[in-house]
Structure to design on (478 residues):
């Protein structure tokens, strides 16, 4: 009988904090600027420059720790992690090893077998490194130090996850918490959320952990899921062949769907950590913790309860809408403007989600304004435009954030309420389709659908279907 294996996974998740300036200097953290334009002597590691801690970083890290049920370390400090790499300008990184800001927390995830707690070993603050840009044409590597010194919180989980599905659920939960708190936008494609996967396999039922590998370079949930499956299979094959799994850091290549060894996995002693001499310890008193707790915004569980009571929308809708803070904010702003929660929910659940799926978009990429969606809901509601026209207009709102009133006016899309115009169109359709008229009068209901379709087309979809139906029946009944 073939051996059964269990996968054991722990994660190191880096979340870039959404402060305006870097962790130890006043340089901007804005993403996407020209290389090396957000730099100074501190974040490029110039001799004699000294770091000064950004208080907002500490408060964001505390907020994240509290939201993930962690204990805040009331006297914490920074340490130097020494390693040599071109994107690391000082040849060390200021991080936290001995006294990280938060410890012993957990987040709850939904799995196929029910709810599960994934324990968080610790969260620590640190500075990000710069970015190496490899130019294959010139066979050179260039360094961009814009990211150097951008504040990070690293969240280290316990090895509590057992599948790619659980890992994705855990990451989605962390991303949701960070976005709801407003401490990070967590855009994987921009690197503001990154995950390293520590994975080992062991025989099912065994208590002893197998040898773990760490996988880096994972910048999408899809890549993470593929990497986990690929590494699990690789380790099982090695064990089946009687070979050893080597503790090492591996790099995932998403294009080739394959990982390859980068270096042997370091232990803490390899980094020769020692207390950071240029920064004093951080003392966090009870009042400061209480202040951060009091400032915590409404998180998803409270929002869910409020939606069900205040807006009377189905639980399923409320759950999907609150999965993303961006979508929840859009929904609430739309409702505030038009006062129609059920209709706003229907538009978001229907057309917004459909178009996002078609275009492969994340909620954070939504650009249209709640004002324009609310206007459209009102226009469809009072019959200024038909339901079919409303959907077409919404596609323009979705892509170009057009003002629906102007767009409808400019493109002549208003509902035709003129009885004379409807009668004229219907009479022409009936005259042009004598066979369909005869079929309908002979009892064939399908023929009515054909006449209805032709009439709506003749009116360019701008008439109220109920009015057209009534008109056809009235003329045919004579």
């Amino acid at each position: 009988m073939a051996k059964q294996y269990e996968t054991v996974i722990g994660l190191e998740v880096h979340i870039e904090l959404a402060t305006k300036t870097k962790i130890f200097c006043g340089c901007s953290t804005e993403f996407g600027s020209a290389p090396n334009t957000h730099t100074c002597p501190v974040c490029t590691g110039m001799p004699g420059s000294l770091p000064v801690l950004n208080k907002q970083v500490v408060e964001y890290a505390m907020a994240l720790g509290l939201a993930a049920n962690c204990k805040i370390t009331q006297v914490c400090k920074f340490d130097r992690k020494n390693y040599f790499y071109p994107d690391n300008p000082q040849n060390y990184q200021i991080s936290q090893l001995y006294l990280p800001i938060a410890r012993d927390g957990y987040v709850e995830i939904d799995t196929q077998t029910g709810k599960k707690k994934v324990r968080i070993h610790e969260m620590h603050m640190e500075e990000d490194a710069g970015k190496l840009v490899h130019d294959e044409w010139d066979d050179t590597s260039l360094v961009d130090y814009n990211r150097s010194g951008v504040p990070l919180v690293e969240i280290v989980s316990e090895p509590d996850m057992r599948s790619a599905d659980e890992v994705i659920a855990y990451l989605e939960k962390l991303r949701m918490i960070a976005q709801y708190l407003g401490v990070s936008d967590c855009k994987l494609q921009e690197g503001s959320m990154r995950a390293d996967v520590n994975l080992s396999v062991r025989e099912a039922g065994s208590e002893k952990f197998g040898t773990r590998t760490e996988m880096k370079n994972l910048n999408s949930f899809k890549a993470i899921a593929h990497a986990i499956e690929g590494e699990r299979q690789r380790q099982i094959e090695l064990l089946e062949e009687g070979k050893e799994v080597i503790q090492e850091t591996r790099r995932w290549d998403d294009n080739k769907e394959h990982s390859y060894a980068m270096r042997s996995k370091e232990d803490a002693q390899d980094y020769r950590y020692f207390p950071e001499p240029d920064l004093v310890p951080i003392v966090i008193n009870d009042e400061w913790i209480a202040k951060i707790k009091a400032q915590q915004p409404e998180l998803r569980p409270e929002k869910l309860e409020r939606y069900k009571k205040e807006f009377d929308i189905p639980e399923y809708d409320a759950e999907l809408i609150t999965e993303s803070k961006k979508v929840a904010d859009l929904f609430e702003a739309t409702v505030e403007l038009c006062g129609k929660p059920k209709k706003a929910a229907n538009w978001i659940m229907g057309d917004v989600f459909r178009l996002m799926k078609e275009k492969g978009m994340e909620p954070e990429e939504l650009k249209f304004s709640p004002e324009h969606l609310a206007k459209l809901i009102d226009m469809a509601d009072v019959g200024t435009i038909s339901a079919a026209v409303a959907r077409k207009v919404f596609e323009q709102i979705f892509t170009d954030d057009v003002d629906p009133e102007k767009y409808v006016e400019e493109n002549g899309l208003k509902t035709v309420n003129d009885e004379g115009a409807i009668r004229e169109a219907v009479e022409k359709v009936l005259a042009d389709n004598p066979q369909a008229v005869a079929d309908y009068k002979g009892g064939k209901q399908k023929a009515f659908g054909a006449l209805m379709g032709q009439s709506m087309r003749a009116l360019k979809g701008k008439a109220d279907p109920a009015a057209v139906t009534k008109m056809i029946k009235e003329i045919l009944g004579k």
